[in-house]
Amino acid sequence: MPKKDLRNLCCSPKRSSDSTSQSTSQLSPPSRFSFSSSRPSFSDSVMDRTLEMAEPMIMKWDPNTTTFAKVTSLFYENRREAKDFIKCVYNLQKAMHFHSTENSKSDKLVRAQSLMQIAVKRLQKEFYQILSMNRAHLDPESISTVSSRTSIRSSSSDIDDENDDDRVIAGESVSEVEDFSTVVMADLRLIAECMISSGYGKECVKIYKVIRKSIIAEAIYRLGVEKLSSSQVHKMDWEVLDLKIKDWLNAVNVAVKTLFNGERILCDHVFVSDDSIRESCFTEISKDGAMILFSFPENVARNSKKSPEKVFRLLDMYTAIAEHWPEIEAIFSFDSESVVRSQALTSLIKLGESIRTALAEFEIALQKESSKTPVAGGGIHHLTIDVMNYIILLADFSNVLSDILAEAPPPAKVPLPESYFGISDSNESPAPAISLRFGWLILVLLCKLDGKAKYYKDVFLAYLFLANNLQYVVVKVCTSNLKYLLGENWITKHEEKVKQFASNYERLGWSHVIESLPREPSTSMAPNQVKEIFKRFNSSFAEAHRKHSICVVPDSKLRDDLKISIARKILPVYREFYNKYRGAIVKERHSAHVIRFAPEDVEHQLSDLFFELIIESESSSSFEFSPSHTHHGCDE
């Protein structure tokens, strides 16, 4: 009812009462009973006026009255009239409440109740039609977009504001920014608030739950997430399960950021006037789908076949839940949805346990690796490559692994000196658990390599093997996240060890060549002594070149450093000796047998070293990522 009409209606009886009391004050005292018998009561007047205004509007849209009302949508046909219809229902409900306090058995109240039921049926029909016919405009992605760029009206009291309400209700007045999704959401809220206010909230909620729950269920299915039993997961081939995990990883991002987030926004908006309805609606709609989504990782962690190489899928799932945890808490914040939060947290815990188990199995598999065939040329062992690739991939998950390893019971202190372990860890300054774990895994690898070096018959090859493999480890650490986990101190200490191994290789492999030359080549010598030195150098250099021609140094820096170091110890001395005595020797017969190598020949032959390729079949490793039974320590 317009405020002006209501004001006139309310004031009219009062003026009449004042006039009557003045003219009859000398005859009899005022009496409400005599007033009531001569004039309609105030509540009667309000009810009459409300019925007079509401009945034509409500009956016009009674589906049982005309075919037009049965097949036409009020909100789609005439948005201004839809707004007036909502106002009529509000006014009718207020008048009924006011009138019932005066006369609860009035015929007018019965008539008003009948109109209210017709109106509510109309609103139910509109609510259902808007929800079912505008699924495209109410998809979670559209809702999230609308929510992020504009705010929508927030209470039924806005209906009383003529100018403001035109902006939301009247189709012709909607701004370019507020698209159709915004209008549809506003319509749903108007209807929901009107029905709840009129005491028909259950009917409204029932429609909403049925339609929106089916949308969530369909979306979860289309995202490729299905409810699997423990036995199904346990029996599933890894290739099949891996595909399902990939589907889940794609699904969880869409489900949290778009599906459930958009549904929560819509539910909060439509039922903003009633917190308990908002909670019950969203819980009913989202709970089943969310439980299917967040129980999958726990199912995989508990029932899938375990092996170290599968840890990365577990880490992917752990990361997905951990990264979305703040959103999960915000979206599923209602008390009735604590079971959803609990399920997501349980999946995190079980994934963490499985990841720690996989790491332990990896270490045991590494401990039990038992190949004994030396790598040709002292090259890089496949064990080194496999283990470092694995550890580097693990290091990419350092953020979540920090949490996972921090939750594990602290391991017993390993009685190894810091100079060997490379990481400072004391009671006063404890190292992070993840740094210790990675440092320990690499240490186990280096122990295995130490043992494998013993299978070389030539000791110099053993040291070249250790230099090559440790250099590979150090380079991998420096070019990955391991650099930040192990620290500069670790890198510096192990770079020094590479130099020590390289120096030992050089000393054991080339010392007889260096020693074949005089320490002071400028010192005068007898011709026979000169010939003897040339012959000794020819023999030792030829033998060294033959042996070292099979050596491999894959790292270019280490290769260049070795060649430069060896050349510096041989070439300057030999060149000086060669230049001083060559002239005298070439005059003699058979001088070619005495001087076999010019300094340039020595330089070229040294520069050609360390380039041969590793023969793959001779360097394979028996290392497999599979669970083992016992712990044998570092030694072979």
What does this protein look like?
Keywords: Exocytosis, Protein transport, Transport. Pfam families: Exo70_C, Exo70_N. One of its GO terms (biological process) is exocytosis. It comes from Nicotiana sylvestris (Wood tobacco). Component of the exocyst complex. This protein is mostly helical and 636 residues long. The chain has four domains: 43-134, no CATH class; 215-361; 378-421 and 431-510, no CATH class; 517-608, Exocyst complex component Exo70 (Monooxygenase), CATH 1.20.1280.170. Helix content is 71%, strand content 0%. It contains 26 helices and no strands. It has helices at residues 3-24, 32-38, 42-60, 67-71, 74-77, 79-100, 107-133, 140-149, 162-169, 180-197, 201-222, 230-235, 238-270, 275-303, 311-331, 338-368, 382-395, 398-406, 418-421, 433-453, 459-478, 482-515, 527-548, 556-586, 591-594, 599-607. Helix 3 packs antiparallel against helix 6 and helix 14 packs parallel to helix 16. The model is unreliable at 1-38, 148-158, 160-178, 614-620 and 626-636 (pLDDT under 50).
Helix and strand layout, with pairings?
Layout: H1 3-24, H2 32-38, H3 42-60, H4 67-71, H5 74-77, H6 79-100, H7 107-133, H8 140-149, H9 162-169, H10 180-197, H11 201-222, H12 230-235, H13 238-270, H14 275-303, H15 311-331, H16 338-368, H17 382-395, H18 398-406, H19 418-421, H20 433-453, H21 459-478, H22 482-515, H23 527-548, H24 556-586, H25 591-594, H26 599-607
Helix pairs in contact: 1-3, 3-6, 3-7, 6-7, 6-10, 7-10, 7-11, 8-13, 10-11, 11-13, 11-14, 13-14, 13-15, 14-15, 14-16, 15-16, 17-20, 17-21, 20-21, 21-22, 22-23, 22-24, 24-26
